[in-house]
Specification:
This protein has 171 residues and is of the alpha+beta class. Helix content is 18%, strand content 30%.
Length: 171
């Protein structure tokens, strides 16, 4: 197995391609929650006219954090991972609900025409976050996927069993 294939099989999150185009990093995001239905408005930065709506008919859970707080949090995790005295001496996963760099498949040869880093939206392998829902979650959720979305001002982690609906608003 090549190093690239090994990284791909170990990663819990793969780049997600909701549309057939390259996505710019750090989009402006806003959300609307109605019951257990979530709609994200996505507007790419700068002069790009591209915008879309990502609608999750039902969600199991959502975590939202301020992007600057997330970067501080993320940097402290990386310091702990590289610290000889850190808690990760036995290569245990740091207990955080948000993915860290080692969870992301940053080499995606299958979509090299669209994919480049930093990529703004990732999808987990099936049931990667199901343990966070406890014993009841093990029975309720059979096909739980997580979507990790990094925007300009906020970072989202959305758990769902339903396939999101994509609506292009402008190109």
């Amino acid at each position: 197995m090549t190093e690239q294939e090994c990284a791909m099989t170990q990663a819990s999150y793969q780049p997600w391609f909701p549309v057939e185009r390259k996505l710019k990093p750090h989009p402006d995001l806003s959300c609307r929650l109605e019951g257990v239905s979530l709609t994200l408005q996505w507007q790419e930065p700068d002069d790009s006219a591209f915008s879309m709506e990502i609608h999750f008919p039902t969600i199991a859970g959502i975590l939202v954090i301020d992007e600057s707080s997330y970067q501080t949090f993320s940097n402290s995790i990386h310091v702990n991972l590289n610290d000889d005295l850190g808690s990760n001496i036995n290569n245990e996963k740091i207990n955080t609900p948000f993915p860290i760099d080692t969870d992301l498949n940053m080499t995606n040869p299958s979509r090299s025409d669209y994919f480049s880093l930093p990529w703004p939206i990732w999808k987990s392998v099936k049931n990667a976050r199901r343990p966070y829902y406890g014993e009841l979650g093990e029975h309720i959720y059979q096909n739980l996927y997580s979507y990790y979305i990094v925007g300009a001002d906020s970072v989202y982690l959305i758990d769902t069993e339903t396939k999101p609906e994509i609506k292009i608003l402008s190109c």
